[in-house]
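[Target chain]
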Amino acid sequence: MHILVTGCAGFIGWRVSKRLLEEGHQVVGIDNLNDYYDVRLKEYRLEDLKAHKNFTFYQGDIENLEFLEGVFKKYSFDAVINEAARAGVRASLENPFVYFTTNALGTLNLLELCKNYGVPKFVLASTSSLYAGQPMPFKEDLPVNTPISPYAASKKSAEVIAYTYHYLYGIDVSVVRYFTVYGPAGRPDMSVFRFIKCIMEEKPLEVFGDGSQSRDFTYIDDIAEGTILALKPLGYEIINLGNNQPHKLSEVIGLIEKFTGKTARVENREFHKADLKATWADITKAKELLGWQSKVSLEEGIRRTVDWFKENWHWLKDIKL
C-alpha cells in the first residue's frame, strides 16, 4: 500500500510509520517539526525512518492546504493516517487556538483532499481524554459531549468532521482513541519520560495529585499495531486502543526505581482540574473488529523504556522537560 502518515516525526506517528515500512509498504511522511518539545527527539525519530528506502519525507503543516495538495497531487494514496496533532491537556489551556487550527482544521484539510483525490481510507488518532466524567471502563458508545479541555474538544471536533465526510462522501474512517501511550523515544511532557529522566538525574519528581490516580498505560508497539490493523474497511468506527488494565502512577514510579536502581524524590502538586483521575479502556470492540489486544505488560514496557534511556543517555541528558 501507499500510505500518507502525518506527524511522522511525532512519537506515535514515528512508530506507526516504522512498522508500515517494516511490513513493506510505501510511506510518505509529513511533519512540521515544531518546537512544542525538544526537536532533537523528532530528529532522532525522523533519521530512523529515513534509513528505509520506501520512506519519503516532506516538512510542512497540515494547516496549510496548498502544501498538502501539492503532496496529494504527486501520489495516489491508498490511505491516510492522521497522527499530526497538538497534544497535551494542560498545554491546551495556555494556547487553545493552535489546538483547533491543527487538530480540527488540519483534519478537515486532509479529509477534503481525500475526497478530492479519491483516497478511500482515513485513520484518525484520537484520545481517551474525551471520556472525562464517564463511568469506567470507558466504552466507545459513551456520550462524550462534554470535553473538559481545549485539547479534548479539538479532538472531538476532528472525530465529528470525519463522520461527516464518511456520511457525505463514503470515506471509510477508523477513529482510534489512544490511552496513555509510552515507550522508547516518547514525549518529554508525558509522565513516563519525565519520571525516568528525573529519577536518573536524581532530581525531584513533580506529581500532580498524590500518585493514586491511575492510567491505562499502553506500550507504543501495541498502539502502532492496533493503528495499522485499523486500516481495514470498517465504514465508520471508533475503537479504543488501551491496555485494559489501569495502573497507579505510584506503581509506575516504583518500576522505574527498580530498573534504574535509583530512588525517586517525589514532590506532590495540586491535581489539575482538566486532568482525569483515572482511565480504563474497554477493548472489546478492538478485539472483535481488529483481533487486537495489548501484549506488552507495564513491567516489560518500563524495562524496555529505561533500557532505551540508558543507551541514549549521552544526548537525552540534555533534553529539557
Q: What stands out?
A: The chain has one domain: 2-316.
